[in-house]
Amino acid sequence: MNVIEKKQALLQTLASIDDESVINELYEVLHPVEGITTTEKEKLPKELQSKLNRGIQDFSSGNYITNEQMKEKSAQWVTK
Questions:
Q1: Count of domains observed in the chain
Q2: Domain residues for 19?
Q3: Distance (Å, rounded) from C-alpha 35 to C-alpha 25?
Q4: What is the predicted pLDDT for the residue at 16?
Q5: In the chain, which residues have pLDDT < 50?
Q6: Which of 66, 27, 62, 64 lies closest to 37 in space, CA to CA?
């Protein structure tokens, strides 16, 4: 299955989902920063809110590494 076929299959599957909670979960996976609401953050301690905001800023500015990159780094640490 090529990329276009995979996209079409995903779109068909998504179009067939009627459960709003499933749609919301998928949306949060694809748009993690948008999934965090101000109300949810306000329930957290101020120090944690600050750390979360800093992480969101880092993520938004591209200051992060992928899971694959982290696996490579940790493998290097183990072999040293």
A1: 1
A2: 3-79
A3: 9
A4: 95
A5: none
A6: 27
